[in-house]
Amino acid sequence: MNTEEVTGAAGATPRELSGFGNEHSSEAVPGALPVGRNSPQRAPLGLYAEQLSGTAFTEPRAQNRRSWLYRLRPSAAHPAFHRIGNGSLRGAPFEETEPDPNRMRWDPLPEPPPGTDFVAGLWTLGGNGDARLRSGLAIHLFHANSPMIDRVFGDSDGELLLVPERGVLRLCTEFGVLEAGPGQVALIPRGVRFRVELPAGPARGYVCENHGQPFTLPELGPIGANGLANARDFVAPHAAFEESGGPVEVVNKFCGRLWAAEYDHSPLDVVAWHGTHVPYLYDLRRFNVLGSISYDHPDPSIFTVLTSPSEVPGQAGVDFVVFAPRWLVGEDTFRPPYFHRNVMTEYMGLIEGAYDAKAEGFRPGGGSLHNMMSAHGPDRVTFDRASSAELRPQRVADGLAFMFETRWPVTLTAQAADAPHRQAGYDAVWHGLEQNYPAPRPS
Ligand SMILES: [Fe+2]
Q: Which among 272, 289, 314, 364 is least surrounded, fewest beta carbons within 10 Å?
């Protein structure tokens, strides 16, 4: 599908560039986009043509991601990068601690020092795989109270799925501007440069850095042609560019480490673009939640928004899953998430409200990690309540939780293992689940 920006009548708002994986195009100045070819002898308006490849040239058409950018200066015009400090950002492979089978939970990140921008405010919890082998993921949290000023970030190691929990992220990217607040997610593709501004003050949230195959929509199988996250609800930005001079510090995450170069101009200077390797925004409130209308409830994979497939069919490098407001109507059914042990590893975060498997202790901005095969499920209070609840149709509407579910165990950074905001005694939520057998038979 081809989506072209049209400006329509004078003063009209350009229509949204909507649709997942579409061949979008956008120009901030009319005539900036060449017609009928990507790299004409002279690009329009004196711009430089440049291709940005998110997948190998030769990957199958259905997975191939690339964009053509028409910019004031080519990205190649830059001085050398030099190493800078990583702050509290870490990269895969994660080898600072031993893999830990225990169940873990954290409170939200504490307040950062004044003047902490998005990059400085990134704090890595852990991850798996190896950025150098383009496998696995890193789980970061962020807490920022200052806009990025004369500073731009790009990540060679993977795409960044940003999940704000507090505040608003204004993402000024090479492709234009997107704004994401709580309940929305934004994706910055691998290598795309961006600056984060904070139009609503301090911001906090989560980041899934996906080293593997780019996120895509899950197959729908018997669900049919519609449902879950609908492709039309993903929105790309309109082209917008900066003509500002430098100096601008361009920070690059490369194989887990931060490098920086002093540019004499902003690299956010793309006047027009077309392609498929494009930032996008999605509003989780548009997720079409499907579930059982008879008994039991489906496995939580039914809530998958985006998936990064691996070479094993059905076994994701990472799934992004949302637990959105929904109705529970199952008859003779234990309605909260069941007790389970999972070959996949689950990191959960909470954007707002409460999660229906945990009565307390799981706070917005906090998170839990249940590594491969670690046993978990509803806490004692939730179990007791759900086991005796009257099973009328029930709307679960007071929370928005999500999960990064990954095929490999997550190893913590040292700072996450030893964090003062890590909850001691998380195991206690399952205390008191005593043997009820043999229960008295119903008379
Ligand atoms: Fe689970």
A: 314
Selected catalytic residue, list 211, 238, 297, 370: 297
Could you tell me the distance, in angstroms and rounded to a whole number, from the CA of residue 374 to the centre of ligand 1?
A: 9
Helix (H, G, I), strand (E, B) or coil at 376: strand
Asked if 218 and 182 touch (Cβ cutoff 8 Å), the reply is no
- What is the b/e burial string over 183-200, where b = at least 16 CB atoms within 10 angstroms of the residue's CB? bbbbbbbbbbbbbbbbee
CA distances from 393 to 115, 259, 328, 333 (A): 48, 54, 6, 12
**Tokens at 255, concatenated:** 């194989």
Return the sign of the alpha-carbon dihedral for residues 42, 46, 47, 50. positive
d(CA 44, CA 70): 8
* Interval between CA 370 and ligand 1 midpoint (Å): 7
Res 398: pLDDT: 86
Say if domain 82-269+276-284 classifies as CATH 3.40.50.300: no
- CA distance linking residue 362 with residue 112, whole number of Å: 21
Distance 175 CA to ligand 1 centre (A): 37
What homologous superfamily does CATH list for 286-422? Jelly Rolls (2.60.120.10)
- CA 369–ligand 1 middle distance (angstroms): 9
The reported pLDDT for the residue numbered 245 is 79
140 part of the active site? no
pLDDT in the model for residue 7? 43
pLDDT for residue 443: 73
Domain parsing of the chain, residue ranges: 2-71, 82-269+276-284, 286-422
| SS3 of residue 302 by DSSP | helix
Partners of residue 350 on adjacent β-strands: 401
| Statement: the pTM of the whole predicted model exceeds 0.90 | yes
Neighbours of ion ligand 1 (CB under 5 A): 346
Burial pattern 241-270, b for ≥16 Cβ within 10 A else e, equals bbeeeeebbbbbbbebbbbbbebebbbbbb
Task: Give the count of beta carbons closer than 10 Å to the beta carbon of residue 139.
Answer: 26
For the chain, residues with pLDDT lower than 70 are 1-14, 357, 359
